């Protein structure tokens, strides 16, 4: 299959999921060297942090990271609207509301997946953000929570979001257990129900729906795109980032070949030098690139050389070239 963006109902058939502690600005810059077109998301940022914290640290990004969406965590409609406006002013291309994270910490802040139990509040928040910004407002959710996992309840929840002005819905095709499972277990134990997401798309044909959860291969993306409008890749894009190398040509019709892995390393080195000049620790960047050579001879040596040396005070960007020399291909 070779589905391009021109064949799709919207411009982003492939995206990379927001992942706490992973999809920071350094990871996003690195991923952008592999794919120019896939839609990238920030880590979740709470409305309180944006309204009261260091906005440049939280929201600053490189122009090269676009297209780029900001994911918000929060439940107060007025605060969501203010944070969305700030995000739009920082140049983000989309504002996304997290209604899918099941962690205890997120629940204690009254945001994330627990909000599925408060559909009216979520709709009010979406409407407030929609009135505050001119860029798309989207929602990332689960198919249900705890024992509230009937299709009828999900459909009613989504109907409220559509009425409030949601322009795109990203659905993690698992329900979440709010008590008794860790966030990691909530990504693995509840069964994937892709059929539920497909049914939702069939019943809401005018709503752009993106599917998420357990997607690791390009042929899996192909199959999902037969049923829904887009696919969001999560941990596979982090652990095996070069998976994105075929995205631009396969789904966006880009004529150019993807850069080789070692070319990605070469293009990343100037970025690292600039960040180190600003005081950014080397290992806060290199931790994101450990999977670049996954599956190739020497991949373990690449990971080991970076892991064992990036924390050293004298280490600099040349460490990447040294590590890449240990890989026989790529």
Automatic annotation (TrEMBL):
PROSITE patterns reported in the protein's UniProt record: UPF0034
Q: Specify the enzyme's EC class, one word.
A: oxidoreductase
Q: Which GO terms describe its molecular function?
A: flavin adenine dinucleotide binding; FMN binding; tRNA binding; tRNA-dihydrouridine20 synthase activity; tRNA-dihydrouridine20a synthase activity
The source's superkingdom equals Bacteria
State which Enzyme Commission number(s) the record gives. Answer: 1.3.1.91
In terms of InterPro entries, this protein maps to: Aldolase_TIM, DUS-like_FMN-bd, DUS_fam, DusA, tRNA_hU_synthase_CS
Q: Which residues bind FMN?
A: 18-20, 71, 140, 172, 212-214, 234-235
Q: Which transformation does this protein catalyse, written as a reaction? A: 5,6-dihydrouridine(20a) in tRNA + NADP(+) = uridine(20a) in tRNA + NADPH + H(+); 5,6-dihydrouridine(20) in tRNA + NADP(+) = uridine(20) in tRNA + NADPH + H(+); 5,6-dihydrouridine(20) in tRNA + NAD(+) = uridine(20) in tRNA + NADH + H(+); 5,6-dihydrouridine(20a) in tRNA + NAD(+) = uridine(20a) in tRNA + NADH + H(+)
What's the family?
A: Belongs to the dus family. Belongs to the Dus family. DusA subfamily.
- What is the protein's given name? tRNA-dihydrouridine(20/20a) synthase
Protein species of origin: Oceanibacterium hippocampi
Q: What is the lineage of its organism?
A: Bacteria, Pseudomonadati, Pseudomonadota, Alphaproteobacteria, Sneathiellales
């Amino acid at each position: 299959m070779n589905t391009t963006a021109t064949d799709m109902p919207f411009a982003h058939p492939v995206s990379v999921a927001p992942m706490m502690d992973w999809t920071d600005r350094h990871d996003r810059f690195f991923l952008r060297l592999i794919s120019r077109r896939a839609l990238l998301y920030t880590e979740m940022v709470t409305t309180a942090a944006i309204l009261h914290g260091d906005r440049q640290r939280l929201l600053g990004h490189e122009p090269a990271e676009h297209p780029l969406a900001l994911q918000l965590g929060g439940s107060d409609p007025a605060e969501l609207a203010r944070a969305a406006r700030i995000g739009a002013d920082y140049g983000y291309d989309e504002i996304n509301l997290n209604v899918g994270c099941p962690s205890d910490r997120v629940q204690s802040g009254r945001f994330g997946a627990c909000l599925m139990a408060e559909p009216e509040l979520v709709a009010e928040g979406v409407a407030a953000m929609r009135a505050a910004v001119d860029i798309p407002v989207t929602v990332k959710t689960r198919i249900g929570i705890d024992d509230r996992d009937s299709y009828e309840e999900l459909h009613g929840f989504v109907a409220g979001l559509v009425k409030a002005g949601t322009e795109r819905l990203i659905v993690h095709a698992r329900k979440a257990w709010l008590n008794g499972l860790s966030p990691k277990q909530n990504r693995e134990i509840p069964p994937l129900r892709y059929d539920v997401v497909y049914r939702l798309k069939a019943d809401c044909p005018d709503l752009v729906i993106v599917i998420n959860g357990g997607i690791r291969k390009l042929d899996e993306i192909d199959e999902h795109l037969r049923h829904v409008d887009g696919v969001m890749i999560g941990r596979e894009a982090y652990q095996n980032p070069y998976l994105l190398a075929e995205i631009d040509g396969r789904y966006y019709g880009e004529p150019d070949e993807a850069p080789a892995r070692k070319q990605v390393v070469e293009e990343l080195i100037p970025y690292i030098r600039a960040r180190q000049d600003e005081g950014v620790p080397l290992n806060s960047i290199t931790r994101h690139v450990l999977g670049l050579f996954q599956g190739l001879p020497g991949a373990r040596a690449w990971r080991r050389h970076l892991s064992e040396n990036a924390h050293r005070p004298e280490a600099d960007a040349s460490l990447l070239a040294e590590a890449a020399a240990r890989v026989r291909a790529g």
